[in-house]
Every structure is written in C-alpha cells, then in structure tokens.
Amino acid sequence: MAATTESVKTDAAEAPLLNKKNMFLGAALYIVFYGWVRWYEGVYGWSAGLDSFAPEFETYWMNFLYIEFILEVSTAGILWGYIWKTRDRKVMSITPREELRRHFTHWVWLVMYAIAIYYGASYFTEQDGTWHQTIVRDTDFTPSHIIEFYLSYPIYIITGVASFLYAKTRLPTYQQGLSLQYMVSVIGPFMILPNVGLNEWGHTFWFMEELFVAPLHYGFVFFGWAALGILGVVNTEVGAISKLLKKDLA
Amino acid sequence: MSASQSAVRSRAEAVKVSRTFDWLILFTLFFVVLGGYHIHYMLTGGDWDFWTDWKDRRLWVTVAPIVSITFPAAVQACLWWRYRLPFGAVVCVLGLLLGEWINRYLNFWGWTYFPVNFCFPSNLMPGAIVLDVVLMMTGSMTATAVIGGMAWGLLFYPGNWPIIAPLHVPVEYNGMMMTLADLQGYHYVRTGTPEYIRMVEKGTLRTFGKDVAPVSAFFSAFVSILIYFLWHFFGQWFAKTDFVKAA
Fold it and tell me: Phi/psi of residue A33, each to 5°?
C-alpha cells in the first residue's frame, strides 16, 4: 500500500515528457529579440548606417558589433560548457521513460535550431540583398552585415552546436559514434560564417555591385545545402523513438 | 536501459507522444529546409526572383526552375521513400514562399521601400504539386524525374503568367519602348540596375521574338530533369543515419 502510494506520488510529481513552457519561452525569446533587432535596423540603419566614416556609425553600429562579439563568445562558452560539464556519465543506464523525456528536450533544442536557421539563412540573408541593392557599401561591416553575418549566423551556430552536444551527452542513441548527418547539419551551416571571409575579400577586391547570384556567393550556397542533413537527423530520431514506443503502439 | 520497462504508461499515451513528435518534426523540418532552400535559391536565381524588371522571357524562365527543383527532389527522396509522404516538393515550396513573402513585405518594402508589386516572389507551386502527384501516382523516381521534372520547367512560365502579364505590356517612355516592368526598374534604382549587370533578354534567341519563352521553358525543363536525378541522390545521401567513429 505504502509502495503504491509512493509510486503515485512520484508520478504526480514527475516532470512532463515535453516541457512546453520551455519550448514556447525559447521560441518567444528568439522572436522578440529579432523583432527588436529589426526595429533597431529600421531606425538606425537609415539614420546612422549610411556612411561608415561618420561618428554616429561608430556609435550605433560598430559598438553594436563589438557588443555582439563579446556576448556571443560568452554565451557559446557558458552554454556549451554547461551542457558538457553536466553530461550524463551513465547515459546507457537511463530508463526508457527518461530516454523519451530527453528525446523531447532534444526536440525542443531542434525546434530552436529551426527558428534560428530561419532567421539567419532566410530572413536576414535575403534582407541583406535588398539593403545592398539600395545602399552602396563603403565597408565590410555594413548594418545588414553586422546583423546577418555577425549576429544571426553565430546565434544559429550556438543553438545548433548546443543541440548536437545535448544529444551527444544525454541520449543513448548518439553513443555509437558521431552522427554523420547531424554533423553535416550543424557544421555545414557553421561553415557559412568562415565563408564570410571569402565574401568580404571578394567584395573588397572587386567592389562589385550587388549581384546576388554572383559566383562569389556560391560558398554560401554550398554550405546551405548542408541544412538537408536534418533529414538524416529526423530519420535517426524516428528510428530511436519508434524503438521506444514500438510495443506500445503495436 | 532495461528492455522490460516501457517508456509510456498506456497505448493512449504512446499515441499522444507519437503525434507530438510528428508536429515537432514537421515544424523543424519545415523551417530548416526553408532556411537551406531559401539561401540556395536567393543566391542562384535570386536577382530574377527579386525584381519584376529581371523577370524576363528568357533567363528568368530558364534559371528559376533549374535552380529551384533541387531541394524538392532531395526532400522527396527522404519523405516518400522512407515514410510514403507525398508532399516533399510542396512542403519545400511552401517554406520557400513563406520565407520570401515575409522578406519581401517586411524588408524589401518595410526597410527599403520597394513596392510589393515590384519585388514579389515567383510562383513555384504548380510545378511542386505536379511533382508530388507524379511521384505519388507512379511511385517511380525515373517517371518523376522525366515527367515531373519536365512539368516543373514547362509550368513555371504559365504559372507566373497571370501575375507578370500586366507588367509585360509595352509602354513608351521618353521616346523609348520598354515594358511596364522595365519602367518600374527605372523608377526604383538599385545597385544592380546598370544594364551590364541586369541579365535580361540577352542573346540571339531574341530574334525569334515570340518563341523566346516557350523555347526557354523547354530548355529549362530538360535541365530540370537532369537536376532532379542528381538531387534525388543527394537527398538519399542526406537522409542516411550513419554514424562515424570519433578519431
């Protein structure tokens, strides 16, 4: 009797399989933050972002860049460090229910990665096209680049690597080695950031007008393909979750 | 992990868990594919897609279908062959169009003030529906590549015709004949405006006059077939679940 009561109590106190609150708060964080960023671009792009030699450019844009660098390096260090330091050293001995819960948490990370990828690769990248079709660049660090390359790309890199690390440190599925397509889907889009070096070098060298389909941009295209690695991640996850649920769904 | 234990407490919970995962997977797949597809498309065919004065009868019709059949082919390779889900192409195109429309409205118009009827995206939906339907009806990658791929290229121009036709009517401006779309371009000067950058209506094919668009669409359809094959195999590779040993 006592044991039964204890068991029911444990169930009632048990953490939910999917922490919806965390998921919606996480999504809101990205959306509200990027909404603010877009507001900042709208106001200070036109008023302080047209001439990189002007003092207000330094105030509103270069300082923004420096702050980004510091926050991104700190966030990456703290977040990745935390996930690694708190890793489960007995990951192969967890219960199936705990494994299922961790898969849900892993998917919360993947949902965040999806949101971050959307903003980086779609929203801010195409936005860059219209800005540079409108404003002739006189620096590598234009307002749209400061947001696109040095904010939205690092954010999806931080999120993607965090998701990968979570899977690697807490899920039995990922203990058999390194998931090839998971690495492709995280490291490929990450490589878009180093490719900025080629992009800026080219633009500085040739100072071409903004032809978006110029071959100089094909590095971004190639690494963008790596986003398709998510197909492999989905298949790996479906396999693992099916295994956990198979006999109950039969 | 003990094999005797169950991850769920009942069949009902198992079903609920399974459905929840379906939504999480669909959301993630949709937005990650959107990101990859959009960056690919904007940097391989973007200029023709951004502006009406680039949407000509030759290069837009040729380039846009060829570069856009890529991701649909790859995603079909996974969703159909693994899960028998017949919407790989449509889900890609819906994602791309969502990303583009948000951008054209909030950024092209909202930040740099180009009117939306100057910078709306191309319509890829008819080709995507046909591509999915052909795969579903035939269950054959070869048939989808040949029939669907050809339809993808051929349907692009008719699929966009009702939208672009009003902007292709001729106008005379300062003694010069041009289209209404060209005139929009003159009024909205961009860094890509100079005629040595704007790649439209180039080449001797122009001398064939009215035949330009169908010939371009036919060529585009031919290359789309080849690209479909190639990207279908890319999709199969990306769908792999292999693990590599850490060095």
Answer: -60, -45
